[in-house]
Design a protein that fits this description.
Methane Monooxygenase Hydroxylase, Chain G, domain 1, ten-stranded mixed β-sheet, eight-stranded parallel beta barrel, globular, binds pyridoxal-5'-phosphate
């Protein structure tokens, strides 16, 4: 592949910066996926997509799920803690939990448990529904089933059922009242779970979720409440069940300094508690291990300035130092790093369906007539004589003329034809000015702004609210890359819009090493050829937080594994939502819809507007259309 193009593609998409070794650009200019970081086996995403589309069983948008990447991330996490434990001579072990709220899909949870036995992976639940699913899953004997979140009696009863099934259930107490309830139900049933206490730290995380920690956090017990819990357990004669201390300082902690500080404090709380209550031998440090979505390795919200190994080192080291100083045993370290475990494993594939025009670059040249208003004549003059020396000045003149054109139009002095001419000339001047500014290396910020305005807007077949809601909700960045044509120079700049009727359904912020880009480099789009885009790193939170906005529902989904020879195998295809599914979701009764439609037709018949014989066929068509898929179909 041409060196210069390769470099341009690297700068434009930075695949190796954010891909953690799972994605790469092949010599054919396609994105390839690997089952483990830098593994020699790989599969070609475009081949996968074309294969799936050719079977007729899958369409776009298409969520590709790679279960091997889930397992691989679990191993990366375990290895990081294993290395740290070894390096610092730490006496405790590491127990990873998968927090189900990050991605509660059955396939994801089962994959962790299926392959995670070596790592003693357990589950963390934060609601009755999560716990209900978790109870039935087989877990290894020493792994934990941990219950977080606010609890009612049914939640606790459910947890006690899991104890009966031989699970190491740990109920983490978030409120004093919860402990009262747990003690009451344990006494009634004669079944006692392990108890954990969630403590508030003074330290906060960093990034978007820094409010999850600190004194005013939503969850957790104050120091005096922790001590009261210890007394209550003693009074109930259940102090031996107090096994775990829990903290969670927020998700996507961007700055490693925050981790170091929080862990020092957490270790001290543990040590002091351990001196009072000697059976607390697990510390659950929660989640927070971040993902470098933009690959910049900085404290920016969509990045992190550390590696998983550094994070693990800081955790283990802090506990080692503080425990030795306080002369208490090293605890087992429990982690709930959901984002890290799942973000990489899925990719949403969409394609460009259409272009939203601001101005068309294939307009015929504007001809001036004798009776054209002065403002049009002047725009034409500017357009004809703009050059490298005057482009700044001429651009400003054009802006002024454009305003004037609008005023005159509003006064009724300009016809629709003239307004159209003026628009075409104005955008042509902008395009020429931009070309000159680009040659000049963008001396002025205003031309950067112009570049954004002139960027292509492409309509892509997906719903942002379904498939990448954090892009909308918290302005998180996800890497977006065409999965093919990467051996060609990207020549266009674009922003993306989705198929929802919501003007927020757009992406105009893109990952960049030094900044946030407002346009994405793309190749010239030819409507006759499919152009596939991958939205990467959407495996954490996006699926479950995505909504049915506009009743688009779920995209199609395929699960793929890559074998020893580097061939891909389709494990499963799950079809996306149909219109009928969405009727059900929004609580319409389909039979009733059909009846009501028929009644309207009959009214038309009665009014003499419709032939009675047409009715059954029309009703049948209406019924049949409920089976169609919600996203844009065909032509791909
Ligand atoms: C959300 C949550 C997690 C997961 O955090 P990540 O940053 O995604 O790893 C872990 N523990 C608790 C208590 C949570 O609320």
């Amino acid at each position: 592949m041409n060196e210069e193009i390769l470099q341009q593609v690297q700068v434009a998409y930075g695949v190796e910066n954010w891909s953690a070794g799972y994605f790469d650009v092949s010599h054919r200019g396609h994105i390839v996926v690997r089952p483990a970081p830098h593994d020699e086996r790989y599969a070609d995403l475009k081949e996968i997509v074309e294969h799936l589309l050719s079977t007729g069983r899958a369409r776009l948008p298409l969520l590709l799920r790679f279960p091997q990447i889930l397992t691989s991330q679990l191993r990366e996490l375990s290895a990081a803690y294993r290395n740290a434990i070894e390096e610092f001579g730490f006496q405790g072990q590491h127990f990873p939990l998968f927090p189900m709220k990050v991605n509660p899909r059955r396939e994801v949870v089962e994959e962790f448990l299926r392959d995670g036995s070596r790592c003693s992976v357990g589950l963390e639940c934060g609601s009755k529904a999560e716990l209900y699913a978790a109870i039935a899953q087989p877990q290894t004997g020493e792994s934990l089933l941990l219950c977080n979140g606010f609890k009612d009696e049914a939640f606790v009863r459910m947890a006690l059922l899991a104890v009966q099934a031989g699970k190491r259930v740990t109920i983490v107490v978030e409120k004093l009242n919860e402990l009262r309830m747990v003690l009451k139900l344990a006494k009634e049933s004669g079944v006692a779970p392990w108890i954990g206490l969630r403590a508030k730290l003074y330290s906060r995380g960093s990034g978007k979720w820094s409010a999850s920690g600190g004194d005013s956090a939503k969850f957790g017990l104050t120091t005096s409440e922790v001590l009261q819990c210890v007394r209550m357990l003693k009074e109930a004669g259940l102090e031996q069940q107090l096994k775990l201390l829990h903290f969670h300082i927020g998700s996507q902690i961007t700055d490693i300094k925050r981790v170091k500080n929080a862990m020092k404090e957490a270790a001290r709380v543990y040590a002091k508690l351990r001196q009072i209550e000697s059976r607390v031998d697990y510390v659950d440090i929660g989640g927070g291990l971040g993902v470098d979505y933009d690959g910049s390795k900085t404290r920016f919200d969509s990045s992190v300035n550390y590696t998983a190994q550094e994070f693990a080192n800081d955790v283990v080291y802090a506990f080692k130092v503080v425990c030795d100083e306080e002369q208490v045993p090293h605890p087992h370290l429990v982690t709930e790093s959901g984002r890290f475990m799942t973000a990489y494993h899925s990719v949403l594939i969409t394609s460009i369906r259409d272009e939203i025009e601001t101005f068309a670059d294939d307009q015929p040249e504007v001809m001036i007539d004798d009776d054209d208003p002065q403002v049009i004549v002047e725009l034409k003059d500017l357009c004809d004589s703009i050059n490298a020396k005057n482009y700044g000045e001429y651009y400003h003149d054009a802006l002024q003329h454009k305003d004037e054109l609008q005023i005159q139009f509003n006064l009724g002095l300009v016809s629709l034809e003239d307004r159209a001419k003026g628009d075409v000339l104005f955008w042509e001047i902008c395009a020429r000015a931009l070309r000159e500014a680009e040659e000049d290396g963008f001396p002025d910020e205003e031309f950067e702004q112009l570049k954004r305005n002139l960027a292509q807007k492409y309509l892509c077949n997906f719903s942002l609210f379904r498939s990448a809601p954090d892009s909308w909700a918290i302005r998180q960045l996800f890497p977006i890359v065409p999965i093919h044509r990467l051996n060609e120079r990207p020549t266009d700049f674009a922003t993306l819009v989705d198929v929802t009727c919501d003007s927020d359904g757009k992406i105009d912020r893109f990952v960049d090493l030094k900044d946030v880009k407002q346009t994405l480099e793309l190749h010239h789009w030819d409507p006759a050829e499919p152009y596939y885009l991958g939205i990467f790193l959407v495996g954490a939170y996006q699926e479950v937080m995505g909504s049915h906005h506009n009743l688009f529902g779920h995209p199609n989904e395929a699960h793929l594994v890559i074998d020893q020879a580097g061939r891909f195998h389709v494990q499963k295809i799950v079809s996306g939502s149909s219109v009928s599914d969405m009727m059900h979701f929004a609580r319409y009764d389909e039979a009733q819809l059909h009846d009501k439609y028929r009644q309207q037709l009959e009214a038309q018949v009665a009014a003499g507007q419709l032939d009675a014989e047409a009715v059954p066929e029309l009703v049948e068509q209406y019924q049949r259309l409920s089976r169609c898929r919600t996203y844009l179909d065909a032509a791909e």
